[in-house]
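dude i think i finally got it to work??
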Amino acid sequence: MTTPVATQPDLLIRRASGAFALIDSLKRHGVKHIFGYPGGAILPIYDELYRAEAAGDLTHILVRHEQGAAHAADGYARATGQVGVCFGTSGPGATNLVTGIATAQMDSIPLVVITGQVPSHAIGTDAFQETDIFGITLPIVKHSYVARSPQQIARIVAEAFYIAQTGRPGPVLVDIPKDIGLQEFDYLPVEPNQVNLPGYKPTVKGNPRQISHAIQLIRQSERPLLYVGGGAITAGSHREIYRLAEYFQIPVTTTLMGKGIFDEHHPLALGMLGMHGTAYANFAVSECDLLIAVGARFDDRVTGKLDEFAARAQVIHIDIDPAEVGKNRAPQVPIVGDVRQVLVNLLNRLEEESQLPPPNQTLAWRDRIDRWKRDYPLVVPTYEEVLAPQEVITELGRQAPQAYYTTDVGQHQMWAAQFLKNGPRHWVSSAGLGTMGFGMPAAMGVQVALPDQTVICISGDASFQMNLQELGTLAQYGIPVKTVIINNGWQGMVRQWQQAFHGERYSSSNMEVGMPDFELLAQAYGLKGMVVRDRSHLAEAVATMLAHNGPVLMDVRVRRDENCYPMVAPGKSNHQMLGLPVVNSSDSPHRANCLSCGHDNSGDSNFCSHCGTKL
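look at this
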C-alpha cells in the first residue's frame, strides 16, 4: 500500500517502493502491454506488476523464452509506432534478451527493456545469476541505464521513453538491482517528456538551402528514382512520399524495411531493390541519373558492389541520423532531419513556387522501366507434382490482402517481400540482423497490439524451430496468430548459397532428420494444426485457417530445391543478377542467367551449360 504525503500541481508525493515507481511510470507513459518472464532478481517488480494487473491497469504476456519477449515487444512497436516494453530477470534472463535487443537496434525500433539485477552490494562479486548486462549490451542499444537509487527510477523511465522514440529510434536498457526495487522512498512522478537532456537534441528540420538544392536537382533530372527505407516508415511519411512521386512522376523502390511506404499496385512502384529485389528496380538504380534516398542507409544487401551502386547518379540523402549521411555513399545533397518534416517543407516550397514540372520530363524513363517490367516480371512458377513456395505466398496475399504480415528470415522472407503488397506498418520483418525465430513472437506482439486485425506469420521450417516454444504463449492467451510454415526441409537460403557458391556441398543445412510433425506439435499445445501437400487443397486450407477463431499452425510442403531469384551475388553489381530469363534486348544491362541454378550463360545456347535446363 502507498501512503500520500503531500501534493504538488497534478502530482502526488507518496511513500512507495522502487518497483512501484517503475510500474507507475510505465503506466504514465501509456504502456498497456508488457512481454516478459520472471525470475529472482526481478521479483519485486513482478510483485508490483501483480497489483497493477489486478487493477486492470496493465497486461503482462508471459512468454516461454525471453528472446520471445524482446521480439514480441519489437513487433508491437513496428505495427503501432509506439514503444515496446519487455522484462527479463538477471543473468540468463537478461542475456536471453540480447538477440532481440540487437534486432531492434539494427532496424531502429523503439524498445524499453527492463532487466532485474542482483542486489547492489553483490554487483561485481559473481553472485548467483549476475551478468553485466549494461556492459554486454553497450554496442547494441541506443542508450542504457543502471538504477543506483529508487529516486532515479521515474526520471530514468521518462528519459528512456523519450530517447527510444525520438531522433533515430532504438532500444534503451534499464537495469534495476533487486534492492533498488524493494527500497521505499518519497516518490514524486515524472510525466512523459519532462526530461532534461542537454546533450541530446536530434535535428528535426532540414537545412533550407539544402532543400532548395534538392528541388533544383529533381527539376533537372530525367531519370530520377526514389529509394525509400525504414526511416520513412518511422516518420509516418507515406503521404509525402506519394505526393512527391506523383508531382514529378518519379518511380519508387524500397528497401526491405521500407516495404509498405508506397502502394505497390501503383504504376510508379518498383518493389524492393537489392540482393533479391526486382530486376526492374535493380536496373533502375543502375541507370538513374538522380537517386533520392529517403530514410535509407545504403546497406550492403541493397547496394551490392558499393562503388558501382547508382554509379551514374547524383545523390540526395535525407535521414534523421547524421552518422548515416555519407557513411557509405557521399551525397551531392545531404539533408539531416526528420524525413516527414523535410518532405513537408520540400513540398510546401514546390507549392509556393507554383512551377509545375514538364509533363513528359520522365516519360522516356518510365517507358524504359515499363519495358523492364514486361521483360523481367516476378514469376510464380507451377510444377506438376508439388507446390511452389511462391504460390503459397501469392494465395495468402490474395485471401488476406489487408493482413499484418511478419516473417522469419531466409528464402520465404524474400519471396514474401517480392510477392506481398503491404500497406504502411503491415510488414514486420527482421532486416538488418536477419534473426531466425523472429516471426512468430513478433506476430504475437502485433496481434496483442491490434487484437481486431488479421496477423499472419510466414516462417520456414528451420526458422520456426528457433522459437517454437511460443506456441505455448499463443495457447495460454488465445492469441489468434496464423503461422504458415513454408516447409522445404532445408535451411533454404543456406542451401541455395551452398549450391551457387560452394560446389553443392550441403554442409549441415538439411533439416529433415529430427523435424517434428508440426501438425501434431500444434495439437500438443492445444492449437489447430494443418498440413497442405498439394495445390488442390491450398486455397481451401488458407480460407479455413483465416476463418478459425484462434491460433493456427499450417505446415505447407513445397518444392525442396526451389531457389529465390533474382539474386545479386556477393561482390557483384546490382545489374548482374542471377536467375533472369534470356531477353534479347540491348536496353537491359545484364547477362543471361539460368532460372533454375542461376549459372551465367553468355553464349547462344538455348540450354544452361551448368545444369542443362532450357533457358
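The chain has three domains: 3-187, 208-375, 389-557.
im so relieved honestly
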